[in-house]
Amino acid sequence: MSIPVPGRTADRSVRPTAILAGVGAIALVLLAASSALAASAPPLPPARLELAANGVGSSGSITLQALLQEANGRPIADASVAFFVVTTEFGPAGELVPLGSASTGSGGAAELAFTPTWTGREQFVARYAGSAQVGAAQASTLADVGIAHAAQQAPTPEPLDGAGQATVIGIGIAVVAVWLLLAAQVLRVWRIRGRP
Amino acid sequence: MTADLLRARRSATDAQAVPAHPLPVPIPEVREAALRPFGRPGRAYWVLVGGLAVVVAAALVAWIYQLREGLAVAGYNDQAFWAIYMADVITFIGVSYGGAVVSAILRLTGATWRGPLTRIAEATAVVTVLVGAALIVPHLGRPDRIWELVTRPQMASPIVWDFIAVTTYAATSIAFFVLPLIPDLAIAREQLGARLGPRRGRLYGALVGRWSGTPAQRRVLRSALGILALLVVPLAVSVHSVLGWSFALTSRPWWHESIWPPYFVVAALYSGVALVILVVAAFRRGYHLEHHITERHFVHLAYIMATLGALYLYFTFADFLPDAYVGQPGVETVFQAVLVGRFAVWFWLFVAAAGVIPLALVALPATRHTLGIVVAAGLVVPAMWLKRMLMVTVPGTYERVAGTFGTYHFTWVSVTITLGALAAIPLLLLLLFRIVPILSIDEMEELAALTGEADLRVAPQPLAAGAPTPAPIEGHQL
Amino acid sequence: MTERPVPAETARGSADGGRSGEPDGAGQADPSISRRRFLTGVATFGAAVAASSAVAPALLTAAAPEARAAPQASATPQASATGSAPREPVTKAAHQWCMVIDLRRCDGCQACTMACQQRHELEPQQTWIKVYPMTGASGETYHMPRPCMMCQNPPCLYVCPVSATFRTPDGLVLVDQNTCIGCRMCMAACPYEARYFNWTAPPAGPRLPLPPTPEMPVPQRIGTVGKCVFCADRLPHGELPACVAGCPMGALYIGDLVTDVAVNGTGDVVQLSRFLDTNDAVSFKPELGTHPRVYYIPGHGQDLGESTP
After folding, report:
1. Residue B11 has what pLDDT?
2. B471, part of any domain
3. What's the pLDDT at B467?
4. Which residues of B touch A193 (CB under 8 A)?
5. What single DSSP character describes residue B103?
């Protein structure tokens, strides 16, 4: 199953702050557009971004490999590529969980190691924000994750583990003994009392 | 009478078999005094019983109202979630310990002066532990589910252990009260004959069985009571320790103190002995038992009470000092409120009423008489309730995130229920001593034989049937 | 508030002979994740959320084909990429819910409190999530929302005499109001004052056609204890708790320690462990050993333009 990659999850609620932010963003866009018009610069050519997930199913660790190139195939070095995984945990629309970013090398390749936290078909996304020379780019890939590890660490035993249970058992035995002793005394007197 | 004489004669022959415990010699005055409450009660008795019953009934009405409306009508809120009922439970179960100490410890240590006190003390122990346990019911939000403590107990909870400890202690103190009744009821049946009445007759028959006081029977009874006395003391310690741990096992400031369980035990002993003094004094006066319960008994009890009071004051100091000295934020705020802040008046009132004044009354020879001792005990019991109220409510109302104090408000519901529980104690005792002898006849006669006082007491005039009894009190007639 | 939050399961055995493992179900057989978690979630909460299951069929059809068994051979814990401590291999579908509260963003508007009270039909004084005005060490003021901490070692759970308080496999500490006897021992034990008692009958009002459950205890029951439940009925369906959804500042995040994801109500999604790590998150009263599942990112509203006086 492939989920259409959301650009950014839609706000769940429209609130005054969000509206304000929206108004501000529109103003900024208009400002940027007007300045771009003034410079009458041509639109930037988009970069080419490829993404592959390696090591899936063997070790429990996945290496996400991105290759960033200009449209003409020349690798882009020292650029930051952000990696994401899609989660549907908080809504079926899917959301991008940022996994971190890596810088491309001289060959235009960036790598990020990731320990998957759930199994099944995962969708990974890589993004490049663009620069003065090239435009933004995005790529995604699917992978069947076979081995996953919870992000939590294994439990560490506490020093007094089990002591409480031993205490309860010990006191419980004492309580039973007290009741038996009590019953025995009452029965003793009861029996001797009835003896003619 | 013939049976008594026979028994007395048998005691002479069995003396070698049980040298330490000669068989009792009948003491007519003891028998008459012990059965005095069985007579037709006077007007004062009925006024007293009726008044107390009205208070208890009012408490029941208040409780039903509280059941319908919720605990809010008892003055509770989220900032004061434990308050008056918890203090009541601790106080009432606590005073029950007084009966245990007087009866069991004095039996174990062989204090011969205990004779006339044990029955009243044991009855007080039984009645107060039952009333105290019943007070847990209004404390709960859902008393209709109290059976879940049996069906699905969570053994890590101090509440479950409270329940186990109180049940065990109550059962043991009831056994400790009932078993010594067997010889006494046999004597009473014999003394009263037809005047016993059909209902008492049936009850006595069921309890007494074929008890005739043979040496074998006495040996078994004495040994069983010795074991029960041994049991009662640690059980009472366990009850008050677990009550203390209900607080100490939380992380709340001033509750989370390792001294609290023994502190509760000493508090229970202290207030319990004080209550025994009050109950003994009241019944001594009401039923004119001055001949058997003398000032000597009160002075002995007062010494025990004063020792425990001094110990309690020491524990109070030891409770405060370490945390006050270190001054951790939460504890410091609570101690500030108790010692010099908004609760200081009540705390220092407790120090005066349960510390300085009672100790002085007992210490000074001029006030070391029955009246002075009764006044001291009368100060100790309410002051110890006040102390419990402070111990429960002050840390309970302390909000640990914001560092502020909430407020508990007394309401007519909570006050009525508390007063009803208080009234239930004399009411139940008054009714109980219509059924069982107020003095432990057999034990007194046995102790008298042991100490040689029997010869003095079995004096010239044996109580023949129809002989004039001592002046009836408030219209009491045998 | 100085301890670094280590999302480590520390299973403390309760002194309980009878209910072995119940409080620490999460610690023993830990979480795994597959897309089957939706199936499990739906099955578990199916009865309670029958009405809201309009979403469920879609989820079921979407998730079922992909559901695959986690490999059994992966029993060897491996060092994670980000930490040296071993992690539990995923063996079954589960979550471990947690919350992150970004104090840099909280402006103390109490929208969370109101959203919670509205959803759970609570009296005004029953602030299951309460916003405390706080003063820091250097006199700076800030606001601190306090939901239930969903402790890994919940003191309230250990003192409950009838197991009315229990811990779900998802790490949520819930109260069964059909069992609670109202002794209020849990209120005494909770170091965060997060528990509230129903001193009176809950206010009358329109009622859901469903009986109250521990996950959705509405209406509250007189004479029993209630508290924040992280909106446990919503979480399995990918819905946010009322407070998180209702926070206009995005200061509240709901997260899953297993899948390492947290989201807030304004659409921010973060990788949980990295978010906690890079923002120096702390726990509340860590010295008590309760291991809270609520993490605070310290601050005093800087993101709102406030600064240290």
Report:
1. 47
2. no
3. 41
4. 182, 208-211, 217
5. I
Q: Using pLDDT thresholds of 50, 70 and 90, give the confidence band for residue A4.
A: low
CA dihedral (A191, A194, B3, B9) positive or negative:
negative
Count Cα neighbours of B308 within 13 Å in the Cβ-side half-sphere.
27
What pTM was computed for the model? 0.81
Q: Per residue in C238-265, pLDDT tens?
A: 899 999 999 999 999 999 998 899 999 9
Domain that holds residue C238: 95-304
Q: Is A193 an 8 Å CB contact of chain B?
A: yes
- Most A CBs within 10 Å, among C76, C87, C157, C231, to test the A interface: C87
Tell me the nearest-neighbour CA distance from C201 into chain B, angstroms: 7
- In our burial notation (b when 16+ CB lie closer than 10 A, e otherwise), range B435-465 reads ebbbbbbbbbbbbbbbeebbeebbeeeebee
Assess A194–B contact: CB distance below 8 Å, yes or no. Answer: yes
Give domain status of residue C7, yes or no. Answer: no
Q: By CA distance, what is C265's nearest residue in A? A: A12
Averaged pLDDT for residues B217-226: 92
Mean pLDDT of chain B: 87
Between residues B82 and C137, the one the model is more confident about: B82
Bridge partners of residue C255, in order along the sequence = C98, C262
For residue B291, the enclosing domain spans 2-457
Q: Does A93 touch chain B (CB under 8 A)?
A: no
Return the closest-CA partner of residue C253 out of C41, C3, C5, C25.
Answer: C5
Q: What is the tally of helices (H) and strands (E) in chain C?
A: 8, 12
State how many domains chain B has: 1
Q: What pLDDT, on the 0 to 100 scale, is given for residue B6?
A: 46
Query: How is residue C109 annotated by DSSP?
Result: -
Distance from the A116 Cα atom to the nearest Cα atom in chain B, whole angstroms:
38
**Residue C242 sits in a domain of what CATH number?**
3.30.70.20
pLDDT value at A73 more than 80? yes
In CATH, the number for domain A45-145 is 2.60.40.10
Distance from CA of A82 to the nearest CA of C (A): 13
Is residue C247 domain-resident? yes
**Number of alpha helices (DSSP H) and beta strands (DSSP E) in chain A:** 2, 8
- Asked if the structure places residue B462 within a domain, the reply is no
User: Quick check: C271 and A98 CB within 8 A?
Assistant: yes
Q: What is the DSSP string of C87-101?
A: EEEP-SB---EEEEE
- Does B463 score more than 90 pLDDT? no
Q: Is the pLDDT of residue C56 over 50?
A: no
In this complex, do C132 and B251 lie within 8 Å of one another by their Cβ atoms? Answer: no
B253 is a domain residue: yes
B224·A188 Cβ contact <8 A: yes
**Pairwise CB contact (< 8 Å): B231 & A181:** yes
* CA gap B101, B121 in Å, rounded: 9
Summarize pLDDT for B239-273 with one digit per residue, the tens: 999 999 999 999 999 999 999 999 999 999 999 99
Mean pLDDT is lowest, of A53-67, A123-137, B422-436, for A53-67
Q: Answer yes or no: is C41 within a domain.
A: no
In a domain, C131, yes or no: yes
Task: Please check whether residue B354 is in contact with residue B383, taking contact to mean a CB–CB distance below 8 angstroms.
Answer: yes
Domain boundaries, chain A: 14-43, 45-145
Chain C residues close to A149, C-beta within 8 Å: 77-78, 80, 87-90
Please name the residues in contact with B2: beta carbons below 8 A apart, sequence gap of 6 or more. Answer: none
Contact C70 A148 (CB under 8 A): yes
The percentage of residues in chain B with a pLDDT greater than 90, rounded to a whole number, is 66
Report the gap between the CA of C257 and the closest CA in chain A (Å): 6
Q: Is residue B194 part of a domain?
A: yes
CA-closest candidate to residue B129, choices B94, B168, B160, B103? B94
**How much of chain A exceeds pLDDT 70, in percent?**
74
Q: What is the pLDDT of residues C66-93, one digit of tens each?
A: 232 333 333 233 333 333 445 555 544 5
CATH number, domain of B37, equals: 1.20.1630.10
